[in-house]
Predict the 3D structure of the following.
Amino acid sequence: MAKVKTKFICQNCNTSYPKWVGKCENCGSWNTLVEEIIEDNKGKNAIAKSEGMGKRIISYGLDEVILGDSQERISTGFGELDLVLGGGILPAGVILIAGQPGIGKSTLLMQICGFACKNHKILYISGEESASQVALRSKRLGVYNTGLKFASSTSADDIAETINTDNFDLVIIDSIQTLAMKEVSSASGTVSQITNSSNLIMNAAKKNNTAVILVGHITKEGSIAGPKTLEHMVDVVLNFEGDRYGGFKVVRAVKNRYGSTSEAAIFEMDNNGLKIVKNPSQALLAERQNTDGSIIMATLEGGRPLLVEVQALVTKSSFGYPKRTVSGFDLNRLNLLVAVLNQRTKLDLSDKDIFVNVVGGLKLNDHASDLAICMAIASAAAGRKLDDGVVVFGEVGLSGEIRIAKQTDKRVQEAKKLGFTKAIAPAHKDSKDQFIKPVKDLREALIKYLQ
C-alpha cells in the first residue's frame, strides 16, 4: 500500500511546508501548522488538457442587469441593524457575523428569525447545538411557534444541496468553522475546509437567490478565525462587540457591498433577548459622579452621537517600569497620548501607573476621543476636575495641537439635548455657536479648564 503523503498548512496565511515547524516563516505565527493529506494529482498536464474545453462567456450591458437594490430586502426587525446592513438582508447576499463566545450571536439570529418568519421561509442550521437546545432558546425568545425550520448538520455538501432544492429565502449557518466537505481530507475548521465550504455555499446562495448568514468564530486576538479569504468572499462582514457579561453590545459593519460601513447598532441584553438602546447617552451617564479623573466625551458610533464617560486613575509606580492599562481604547494610542502629555505639558508621568476605562463596555475607535483621554489622565494626576455640564472632544497631534473633529454639529446637538452647557473642543470654522469653547493646544485646555 502506497504511503500517504502529507503537508503542513499554516491556518493563518495558508502557506504549506513539507514538514512541521514551530513558526510560520511567511506570517510569523507560532503553532499554526496543521497536517493535511495531499490529494493525488492525476492531472499533471491539466493546463494543456484544458485548452479548448472552455465555453464562450455571454456578456450583458449593465443597463440590462436587474439591480440588486430593486429587490425586496428581508428586515431583521431591528431598525438600526437594518441601517447597518444598508436597508436589510439582500436576497442572494452572504453575511458573516463574528463575535466572542457568549456575546449573543445566536440570540440575535434567533430574534431575526422570529421577525422574518412572518413573511419568509427560513432555515436555521446548527453544527454546534442539538435540536432540543435550539428549541429551548427559541421558546425563551418567543420564536417556538413561528414556522422556523431547523436542521443539525456539519456537511457543506448537504447544506449546499438543500439551498439548491428547497427554495428558502434565508439560511442561517451556525457556524462556518464546523462545516466540512467530503472532497477535502482535512478536519473541519482548517483553512482548506473553511475556504471550500464557504465557496460552495456562496455559489448555491447566488444561484438560487437565497440570503445566507454565516456565524464565525474569533481568535484570542479578536480577529475572525480562518483565512482572510473568507472575509473577501462574503458580501457583508459584521463584528459583534462588547462585554458578554454586561454593558452595551455594538454591531458594526467592517465590510458592506450594499451600504455604508459607518453605521452601528447598539444593543443591551435582558431576559427576553437583545433590544435596541433608544437613548444610550442617558443610560451611560446615569450613575456618573463628577470627580477627578472623570471626563464626559462626545463621540460617534457610526453616524450616531454618544456621550460617554472616560475614567482615569493615576498612581505612583511601585516598580521601575510604569504600567499602562486601558479598557475600551487602543493601548498603543494611549501610550502615544501619555508621551505627548509628558513632552508638551508640565506633567511628569514617567513614574506613574495609568489606568483608563471607558464606561459601558464600549470600544472607542474615534480619534476625537484623544482630548478627553488626555484631560482625564491630567485630571487624575493633578487631583482636579472639570466643571459640571462640560463635554470634551478633539484629536490631539504630536505637537500637542487640537485638531478638528468630524461631525461636530452632531456631537454638540447631543450634548445640548442632555443639558450640557459647553464643550471643550477645537475651533470650528463653520460654526459661531458659543456652546463651543475653542482650544488650540493641549496645554491651553489643561490650564484654562482643570480647576
About this structure: The CA atoms of residues 424 and 437 lie 5 Å apart.
